[in-house]
TrEMBL record:
It comes from Sparus aurata (Gilthead sea bream). This is triacylglycerol lipase. Pfam families: Lipase, PLAT. Residues 1-17 form the signal peptide. It is found in: Secreted. Keywords: Calcium, Disulfide bond, Glycoprotein, Heparin-binding, Hydrolase, Lipid degradation, Lipid metabolism, Metal-binding, Secreted, Signal.
Amino acid sequence: MNHKALLLWIFLQCAAALFSSALGENAVLKGEDSGLDELSTDGRALDGAVKYNMRKSLDLEHEGCYLQAGKKDCLQECGFNATAKTIFIIHGWTMSGMFESWMHKLVAAVMRRESEANVVVVDWIAMAQQLYPDAVNHTQNVGLDIAAMINWLQDEQQLPLEKVHLIGYSLGAHVAGYAGMYVRGTIGRITGLDPAGPMFEGVEEQRRLSPDDADFVDVLHTYTREALGVSIGIQQPIGDIDIYPNGGDVQPGCALGDVLAVAGNFMEVMKCEHERAVHLFVDSLMNKDHMSFAFQCTGPDRFKKGICLSCRKNRCNNIGYNTRKMRKRRNSKMYLKTRADTPFGGYHYQMKMHVFNRKEADHADPTFHVKLYGAHNDTANIFVDVHDGAVGLNLTNTFLVFTEDEIGDLLKIQLSWEGDSESWNSVWKNIKKTFWSWNTKPPKPVLEVRRIRVKAGETQKKFTFCAQDPGKTEISPGESVTFVKCRDGWEVKPRKRLPM
Ligand SMILES: *[C@@H]1O[C@H](CO)[C@@H](O)[C@H](O)[C@H]1NC(C)=O
Ligand SMILES: *[C@@H]1O[C@H](CO)[C@@H](O)[C@H](O)[C@H]1NC(C)=O
Ligand SMILES: *[C@@H]1O[C@H](CO)[C@@H](O)[C@H](O)[C@H]1NC(C)=O
Ligand SMILES: *[C@@H]1O[C@H](CO)[C@@H](O)[C@H](O)[C@H]1NC(C)=O
């Protein structure tokens, strides 16, 4: 079996085991009309089954204390501070019946960042540790229970709702949605960390997390790859802003090889991508001075082409905890690339260059690399990913270049065209060419690039780079051209469109 087939097989095995019963349900839910089930509005249906563990110490052994609606003395015992922020953390579906290891990381990161906040872990393990459709069936009641708790805090302590933030992972994101829908008033913020997809994709807003559930709803989507018609993380945008790191599908560092080397378990591949949302959020809490930016774009393909690196009119935002609330703007899709590990943030550059076909290059299909030289550091050679297949000749091409390390102000760019001998692909191309023209020396294709216009996503600075040697702007396979900032070019708004 080749690599892709193997991956697919594993995925199907896991997904089928996890969600087999969900598949049928989803179809039914999607089709049926809304009519939410009648609910007992006292919200006490679960009667103590949901536990509210208020964390008092970073020490994991320390149990903290429990809030109980109706019991005033608990508030005092827990040191609940109604004027501070109140952050509820809500887990998702579980097979183990225990908190997963991310929970401690997230709690610790929230407490370090917001030392005065009331940090409450919502424990609905008993209802989450069931067949997936049954756990889904409990999300509404658990949400109702949380709403009742918050209502009680409002009555008892005049808890300001705008300072309430619910953070829900996977199924917990939809629990948060229900809580926001049922609470009296409007909660400040809900963050959905890769909200669950099966049985929620495509259903009406009242049955899943949606923008109306809080004043601000932000969502990270990290596992939206589909198999058997379901995706573990929901694919559709369901918040005010929806951020899709790495397009929301393949997360760096989660490839089969990477994960197997560490864990040796196929399930870990799925878990790695689904849980990545939590780790990105933890990263955003801890690395305040190195924020990751996401950029609004209509889709992943346009983003990968480098078209969407604008911050004008709120088109970019910080990710995770640092996400800024924006004017109500539903389902705004945003993208970024990340590193494979914490700190996840990297640096995005848009590069635009006009590629002239000078000689014999009609079928040259060049493979470019760029090496960036910065004030602090240089990058390795970075493959220029032409998203829709080929460099356009006699056209202006736009690329996205991502660097993992900060290099400081960009000083120099080296553009190289991979030589014939450097890849099997080009060797094969060459053999074919030579075969057809065996008695003539294959002609050397020549392209010309005079300038590269660069925009740095993180700083929004724009520069134009010109050939370092004005006489050396042509490039052939195996060669490179070096560009430095144009002398006139701290620029940059050319009055007229330059013939580049
Ligand atoms: C409660 O929180 C507010 C706001 O964070 C803070 O100013 C105040 O000192 C806190 N009170 C106590 C008793 O910790
Ligand atoms: C969901 O729970 C209700 C009771 O709360 C039950 O009547 C219903 O059959 C359950 N639905 C599913 C799909 O399990
Ligand atoms: C690009 O323009 C050159 C002339 O400037 C021409 O010879 C060549 O065929 C054009 N190539 C393409 C792909 O349009
Ligand atoms: C420069 O970048 C390399 C990777 O390209 C990295 O290993 C190195 O630590 C960086 N140096 C500094 C000073 O950031």
